């Protein structure tokens, strides 16, 4: 491990030993949850992020009910985004993940799940922050 960009280079290892499998408390105000499905195959991915007050991702977990490539994509994604500002994580493309894992064309949609799940998780945190701000304004 290391800084934000030094995720694991041994891609096979993401198939054999997926990282960051698990769940974060989805009701926590600093946790964003992205739950997405692939219409092509019915596989489902849940990816969660915890952000600090500056919007940097400090922790990420996933649970994927899907093929090996989807699991490897989510494992890699959780490693890639740790330490990143969430806006930057939301710009990660499935191409980046697919290239890293050397996915064949028929497996591209598996990495698309990871891109979509990151975006959905970031959106969830942003929405929670808006609601929080709104409720504070109302209390004031
Ligand atoms: Fe191997 Fe982070 S570079 S676990
Ligand atoms: Fe559908 Fe991989 S997510 S085959």
UniProtKB/TrEMBL annotation:
Domain of life of the native organism: Eukaryota
Keyword Metal-binding: yes
GO cellular component entries: mitochondrial matrix
Cofactor entry: [2Fe-2S] cluster
Keyword Iron-sulfur among record annotations: yes
Subcellular location: Mitochondrion matrix
One annotated GO molecular function: iron ion binding
GO biological process, one term: iron-sulfur cluster assembly
Family statement: Belongs to the NifU family.
Function: Scaffold protein for the de novo synthesis of iron-sulfur (Fe-S) clusters within mitochondria, which is required for maturation of both mitochondrial and cytoplasmic [2Fe-2S] and [4Fe-4S] proteins.
Name of this protein: Iron-sulfur cluster assembly protein
Organism placement in taxonomy: Eukaryota, Rhodophyta, Bangiophyceae, Porphyridiales, Porphyridiaceae
